[in-house]
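Journal club prep, shared notes

We agreed each person brings one worked example of a sequence with its structure written out as tokens. Mine is Alkaline shock response membrane anchor protein AmaP. I'm keeping it raw so we can talk through how to read the token line rather than staring at a rendered picture. Sequence first:
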Amino acid sequence: MFPMRSVLNRTVLAVAGLGCLLGALWATAPRVTGAAHLPSWWPVPAPDSVFVDRRSLADLRYEGWWTPTVLMAAVAATVLLALWSARQLHGGFRPLVPLAAAGSTLRTRALEDAVTQRAVTIEGVARCRTRVLGGRRRLRVRMRVWLRPDVTPAAVLPALTALGAQTERAVTPYDVRTHVRFSTVPHRRTHVR
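Then the structure, token by token:
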């Protein structure tokens, strides 16, 4: 996930959570300390009662504005959350990347497959998984590389750097940032029965 989106997500979640917490505390409090600041039509509960009791809720349901307001708020919240969720799943992925030559495009899936196949041919790499995320003029290539046992990342890093430079030359108008995450394939242990 991009750092700016991560900060924005955490900020929105923190503000929404704080708002829900404050609203719940205020609604369930037996006394409303700010009763003087409420509008004149707002019902103020007695000191030993809840904020909205059954009779008050039934009275609200008979008001003409109550049902449309609740329905529109629920629909608006659902649409906003659905759009936000869809944006999270989208993640900046561009299926087609236009290249410098006129009328030429490249599928990001094909680029992922090509980078993965080249990475697996490097000595010491057991397997690789590649993901390409993109923006307007920037591509992010994320590689998860599993190394064979007893191979250090320093041994394969020059070859992976050359692969990243080759990828950047292949998609010339784009600025390519390559992120590599290393893992190791564990030694096979013999089991004694």
